Amino acid sequence: MKAAEGRGRRVRRVGLVTRHSSTAAIALARKLERMLLRRGIAVVHDLESSRARGVPGGAPRAQIARLVDLVVTLGGDGTLLSVARHPAPGVSVLGIDIGTLGFLTTCRPSEAGPVLEAALAGKAHVEKRRLLSVRVTDGGRVPRVARHYRIVNDAVLAKSALARIATIRVEVDGRLVSRYRGDGLIVSTPTGSTAYNLSAGGPILEPTLQAIVLSPVCPHTLTLRPLVLPDSVRLDLSVENDPTDVFLTLDGQEGFPVSSTTRISIARSGETVSLVRASEASFFEVLAGKLSFGGERESAAR
Q: Which of 36, 111, 146, 234 has the fewest CB atoms inside 10 Å of its own CB, making it the most exposed?
């Protein structure tokens, strides 16, 4: 699917979010900072990399998108997710790939300058990705306080290494779908279908589809297979019986234990995140390049 061309606000401030443990990412961040400052564009660094470099200031990753007109991440998909989970209206995210295997960061370091120039000029290819909203309440607490989260990739209910088999009850729009017994359950967006969902044997979805994927992790009953639903539904999840060491993890970055009184509701979020793409390469070209999807590429076979 062809990405839309970005025509957003004039860029006056750019956020640089850097994997501070990578010397290559830090070096490229300094290079891009010099380029931006020469153009009179203010730069806001994330708090973590500012501290690692011994530079005062910096903004938390959860807030940086609301302080700038464009965010550039330098790292892997995890670095991009730390920002994309907290989007701001009209602010795009450009991910520069200084990682291993990733599908969200499509811009190589050698392309960073030209792609950033295109984003500053409003001529970059931008793709909107849907998010999911996760609402967590604990029925054992009075009053019941709901916690709200957004996810780009997935929400995972899974047991720890030594825990017993988990039984996860899943309802769709108030109707029971099944009780998943096994090591856990992955609720994934189409964007996240190439993440943990793929490793667990779930289907690959074109990332702009309006869908939700449910993929069991090592199901105890082999007839339980991955399920694809429209993202207009509401999912209600709970762990039955006496769960031991069962955790809810959000985008692999935030997590906490759940109990038998925890209730988790997942639905389509009203927000989207805009990702700057390095080119108009199709999703299937990315699959071929990242996973050698389908074996040898057609051009190589000729």
A: 146
Amino acid at 236: D
- Name the DSSP letter for residue 104: S
- Same domain, yes or no: 209 and 255: yes
Residue pLDDT, tens place only, 84-103 = 999 999 999 999 999 776 78
**Which residues, other chains included, contact 18 with Cβ-Cβ below 8 Å and sequence gap of 6+?**
25, 26, 29, 45, 46, 49, 73, 74, 75, 79
- Residue 239 domain-assigned? yes
Query: In whole angstroms, what is the distance from residue 144 CA to residue 278 CA?
Result: 45
Q: Residue 117's domain spans which residues?
A: 4-123
Are 115 and 146 in the same domain?
no
The tally of domains found in the chain comes to 2
Rounded to two decimals, the pTM is 0.89
* CATH code at position 167: 2.60.200.30
Q: What percent of the chain has pLDDT over 90?
A: 71
Catalytic residue, candidates 77, 154, 231, 251: 77
Q: Is the dihedral of CA 257, 260, 261, 265 positive or negative?
A: positive
Q: Kindly report the CATH number assigned to the domain that includes residue 98.
A: 3.40.50.10330
Residue 246 makes CB contacts below 8 A (sequence gap 6+) with 157, 158, 159, 160, 163, 166, 184, 239, 257, 258
pLDDT at 285 over 90: no
Cβ-in-10-Å burial (0-12, 13-18, 19+) of 142 comes to exposed
pLDDT tens digits along 130-175: 999 999 998 766 567 789 999 999 999 998 776 678 899 999 999 9
231 is catalytic: no
Whether 52 and 116 map to the same domain: the answer is yes
pLDDT of residue 300: 42
